Amino acid sequence: MIVASSKPQTTLADMLPDCLIHTVLSHIGYKEAARLTILSKSWLQAWLTHPNLEFSVYNFKLIKEVDEILDRYRDKKIPIEKFNLSTFGSDEVVPLIDKWLRIALQNGVNHLEFGYVDFGRTLYPLPHVFTILSAKSLRKLVLKDCDLMQLSLSSGYVTNYCDSLRELCLLGVCLNDNMLQTLVATCPMIVSFTIKHCIGLKKIELRNLQKIKMVSIHIDEKQPIEIQAPTLEHLVCCGLAEKTLMLDIGACQNLKSLKLSSVRISDGFLAQLTSRCQFLESLMLDNIVSKGLEKFKVCESQSLKNLEIRCCSGTTVIDAPNLESLDCVGNEIPVLKTAKTFGPLKHSRLELYSRENISDLWFRKLRKFLFNSNSWSHVTLHFPSCIKIDLENWDPCRGIFAIPQVDVLNVHLIGSLKCPSFADALLWSCHPRKLNLFSTKQMITYFNNLLMYMKNSSHSNPWQYQLKDLRVHKFDLEDLRRQPVEHNERRRIRFSLYWR
Predict the structure, then answer these.
(1) Distance between CA 8 and CA 400 in Å, rounded?
(2) How confident is the model at residue 480 (pLDDT cuts 50, 70, 90)?
(3) Can you give the residue ranges of the F-box/LRR-repeat protein 15/At3g58940/PEG3-like LRR domain (predicted)?
(4) Which among 9, 28, 40, 363 counts the fewest CB atoms within 10 Å?
């Protein structure tokens, strides 16, 4: 017997307790949470009290909606944990910005982000920044495209320390040196500080930050940087390569990671840094310019474990006996000098973007580099085309048993010119355990047929023994399933070769 019931079926969404629904919604964005309101009335009610608010206001209709939502949060005293407000400059929205920020602060916000976009490049004057900073609930503050130059720094204006703030991020903010020093002095307990593309500063000086762990600085002008922070552990500094970076981090002896990008450094800077910072574990150099003969000297570093060098021309001297990971990326084959104490690496990666005319000399230099360095886990080569290599002036039999070993060799080919000498030069330069070729179907097919011909040929090649246990797989990069590729000729394909 079938009994019909008029009661609606209970779904899994209805069975969840309110506290769990609130937890789920608190981990997703405001717009994403709005889509879940169709599940049940419980989910709708939870969304109406969602603690994370994200608004991008760019027309009059949205201005009215946001104002009504925040009025409801104010009147019902609904807690706000995160408030992200991005507005476009207009006469209608400007009078409401201070009101909305004030409601968020009154409702206990701990993560506040405010960004202002004006196509006339007018920055938003934020007169109540110290009122915002003094909020006891606030832990993180992000300001974008605001003008702090009009603030008064009279003794009666800044009254208390902002002991609650832990993260401060200034993006495209206009401020002078005095305002920066006041902000730093007002927030001595911040753990993370980011200043990116700010205007009006002649010098960036960070002192007396008692708890600071992470600093990220992106500059557009030649601005001296002085950091006196014994507790600092992570530093990122990016600038303009044509500007000389005047960086003083002498009192940062507990530094664990350092990233320098697009800056000039003085002679001996790295040697002094690595010898002084006894806890430095990770160092990244990206597009660094120096005048020294030994441009990048990493010496006497017992703690360094990870080193990454990107687009840095010149000689790199490494004396780091405990180094575990080495990454080299650039347009030129690097020049490395390593100390005798330089041990085997757990991870090593070389990536080269070839922009010059590739010749037999280039492959000679590559082979010499790979042979003189530690064995490399991954080598990635980018070629504009598969070009003919002149092999008349080299002795392919010389050094048969000294071909450098590489775990994985990735080769990216854009062109489709068929040149057997290119494969000869490539496999003469190193012996990969696995070769991944990224190119078109036409080039993949040609390369496959060429290697199979060489494998079965009676003609002796210095590297022919590598093909003894050759196995081949083809992958379509759009679905990555092993399969014969019968798609468009221009589609990118990965072609893998394995040696046992």
Answers:
(1) 79
(2) very low
(3) 97-239, 253-329
(4) 9
Write down the pLDDT at residue 492: 43
227: its two tokens: 């950091």
Token pair in block for residue 194: 């980011």
**Strands 52-57 and 82-88, bridge-based pairing:** parallel
Task: Compute the distance between CA of residue 59 and CA of residue 89 in angstroms, rounded to an integer.
Answer: 10
Higher-pLDDT residue of 32 and 115 is 115
- Is the pLDDT assigned to residue 8 strictly greater than 50? no
What local confidence, expressed as pLDDT, does residue 113 receive? 95
> Minimum mean pLDDT among 247-256, 257-266, 297-306, 412-421: which range?
412-421
Helix (H) or strand (E) holding 143, with range, is strand 140-144
Helices (H) and strands (E) in the chain, counts: 12, 26
| Residue 278: CB atoms within 10 Å | 13
| Spatial separation of the C-alpha atoms in residues 329 and 489, rounded to whole Å | 30
What span, in angstroms and rounded, lies between the C-alpha atoms of 492 and 500?
A: 26
Condensed to tens digits (0 to 9), the pLDDT of residues 259-315 reads 998 887 777 788 888 878 889 999 999 988 766 555 677 877 889 999 999 988 777
Per-domain boundaries in the chain: 355-476+488-499
Is the pTM for the entire model greater than 0.85? no
Assigned token pair, 356: 């010059």
- What torsion do the CA atoms of 285, 288, 293, 296 make, to the nearest 10 degrees? -10
Distance CA 190, CA 224 (A): 22
In this predicted model, what pLDDT tens digit does every residue of 183-219 receive, in sequence order? Answer: 988 888 999 999 999 988 888 888 888 899 999 999 8
110 by Cβ neighbours in 10 Å (0-12 / 13-18 / 19+) ranks as: buried
Tell me the sheet residues that pair with 437.
Answer: 411, 495
Tell which residue, 70, 36, 76, 41, has the closest CA to residue 54: 70
Report CA 34 to chain centroid distance, whole Å. Answer: 31
Average pLDDT over residues 433-449: 81
Distance, in Å, from the CA atom of 229 to the CA atom of 361, rounded to the nearest integer, reads 49
With left for phi above 0 and alpha for psi between -120 and 50, is residue 479 left, alpha or beta?
A: alpha
Among the listed residues 409, 403, 414, the one whose alpha carbon sits nearest the alpha carbon of residue 464: 403
